[in-house]
Amino acid sequence: MVRNSLGRELPESFNGRQVVPYQDPYSLQPDCNQATRPLRRINPDQEKVLPNLREAIIAAGLKDGMCIATHHHLRNGDALLGAVVRELDALGLRDITIASSSIHPVHAELIPYIEKGVISGFECGVNGPIGEMVSRGELNCPIIVRTHGGRARAVMSGQVQIDAAFIAAPSCDSYGNMTGAFGPSACGSLGYAHTDARYAKKVIAVTDNLVPYPARSFAIQQTLVDYVVPVESLGDPSKIVSTTTRITRDPVGLQIAKYAAQVIETSGLLQDGFSFQTGSGGISLAVADQVRQKMQAGNIKGSFGCGGITGYFVDMLEEGLFQTLFDVQCFDLKAVESIGKNAGHQEISADMYANPFNAGAVVNQLDCVILGATEVDVNFNVNVNTESNGLLLHNTGGHSDTAAGAKLSIITAPSIRGRLPIVRDEVTTVTTPGATIDVIITERGIAVNEQHADLKQELQKRKLPVKDIRELQQEIYSVTGKPRPLEFTDDVVALIEYRDGSIIDAVRKIKT
Amino acid sequence: MKITKSAQSGTMQSSDLMIFLEPADELIIEIESTVKQQFEHLIRAKVEEVLTQHQVSCGEIRINDRGALDYAIVARLEAGLKRACEKE
């Protein structure tokens, strides 16, 4: 066992790979060149269209022990990963690693194939039942959880080598020019798939909307794509995007949002050129709404909105409050429609969005990000991966990337959820290090990280309820009582990788 | 008070709890909770405190808790006791 700088106990190696313990958010340097793949040649008489997934798997030369990837833009509506795995099994392939950008509850359909040995590991985080079963020790399948930027880094550095990427393409021509903006399974941005298209040894576009060559617009181009496979359906469109994402109506959430907007205003960042990211949760959207009103009132012209894009940000773009939206993933229908028609709504890759090992990601230019948390601790560390029962249920997303990049990273969360206090002595799992978190906002008060004494003073001057984080914790404990810590075994079932590839925490099997 | 008949109180909403009470010859307290690992000891302590206060020494009390705070536990248990101890 080794300990990282946050005191988290880590195994020395995991699934055959040496563990590099996390030190700090910014100093680890890359020590290799970009990964490469063989060049290929497609002559004029060659077709790329193959009749089905099985032919594509054979053509791609997939063998036992290899690695495949899909993207998660179809979210819980995705049918492609399940279909690919069923074909891998039918062809008798075993010991396959999944390096998709994320796994959703719909992928519980993979469980029998994990049990059968078709799938032997995940080079990506998981949302839902697979993580739960692995945490309980009911499935033996190592998991490495990565951030969006960290996944791009892992693929580009060759740490993760994808032998075949199956890219669900809501609209694609016969030569592989594809976009997510149109088609029955339209999902908008294909941001997570760009890296796969550039680095996977074989790239297979899978589409339920084959259009005549050339596609009228495309996000991923033909020169990167080996095969095109038409299928009946990529998934369930009703689960691909939410029809609408809504502002919270909960008074607690609205109070938190109001404080958050006041903190942003106090920080001095809310001026011409302001850049901003929120998630799609109800509180995040309420903050966005407050910020929008303040921008309108002050006639402030922002520079860009970023991240997973919602209809709220589209409205702000169309009202001229932002010049550009950088979109790695569309969260709702309005965002999907916008990316196909608004010139300022730009699709970006996960690499450009958040990779720490390139010549500068978009997150580095962010003024402010609003993030959520399952738990925080008195050192401002944040957990979004494991739930109160200790089960690994959530992927990291861009949480640590944006926290590290933004000038002001704000956690918004209710002080109590189902008796559980938000502030702990120690989080169950560290997802994002406290060194990159600036302010934690609950309805009971605002805690400011020590490194921002000026902001703290300014907030106090404006009579906002600033509290020391331990004071806030004690106040919450006086209502909930002090929770007993969870009990875990020594068996490490997953690693939480920080964006730079060092390991920030390990997830252990729960005691049952 | 004496539990003389079956009764229940509460809901299965988040941050609430549901309590089922039955007559029995001894005192049985069963606790299921979404936060059992963290808070079972505090839930039990609060339930025992309310039972002592109302001098209830036997009965079967099953709790299905969804993360209720102490004041909700007290209120739901007192309501349940009043229903279970009513005279026919």
UniProtKB/TrEMBL annotation, chain A:
<dbReference type="GO" id="GO:0008815">
    <property type="term" value="F:citrate (pro-3S)-lyase activity"/>
</dbReference>
<keyword id="KW-0808">Transferase</keyword>
<dbReference type="GO" id="GO:0005737">
    <property type="term" value="C:cytoplasm"/>
</dbReference>
<dbReference type="GO" id="GO:0008814">
    <property type="term" value="F:citrate CoA-transferase activity"/>
</dbReference>
<dbReference type="Pfam" id="PF04223">
    <property type="entry name" value="CitF"/>
</dbReference>
<keyword id="KW-0963">Cytoplasm</keyword>
<keyword id="KW-0456">Lyase</keyword>
<dbReference type="InterPro" id="IPR037171">
    <property type="entry name" value="NagB/RpiA_transferase-like"/>
</dbReference>
<dbReference type="GO" id="GO:0006084">
    <property type="term" value="P:acetyl-CoA metabolic process"/>
</dbReference>
<dbReference type="GO" id="GO:0009346">
    <property type="term" value="C:ATP-independent citrate lyase complex"/>
</dbReference>
<protein>
    <recommendedName>
        <fullName>Citrate lyase alpha chain</fullName>
        <ecNumber>2.8.3.10</ecNumber>
        <ecNumber>4.1.3.6</ecNumber>
    </recommendedName>
</protein>
<dbReference type="InterPro" id="IPR006472">
    <property type="entry name" value="Citrate_lyase_asu"/>
</dbReference>
UniProtKB/TrEMBL annotation, chain B:
<dbReference type="InterPro" id="IPR023439">
    <property type="entry name" value="Mal_deCO2ase/Cit_lyase_ACP"/>
</dbReference>
<dbReference type="GO" id="GO:0005737">
    <property type="term" value="C:cytoplasm"/>
</dbReference>
<dbReference type="GO" id="GO:0016829">
    <property type="term" value="F:lyase activity"/>
</dbReference>
<protein>
    <submittedName>
        <fullName>Citrate lyase subunit gamma (Acyl carrier protein)</fullName>
    </submittedName>
</protein>
<keyword id="KW-0597">Phosphoprotein</keyword>
<dbReference type="InterPro" id="IPR006495">
    <property type="entry name" value="CitD"/>
</dbReference>
<keyword id="KW-0963">Cytoplasm</keyword>
<dbReference type="Pfam" id="PF06857">
    <property type="entry name" value="ACP"/>
</dbReference>
<keyword id="KW-0456">Lyase</keyword>
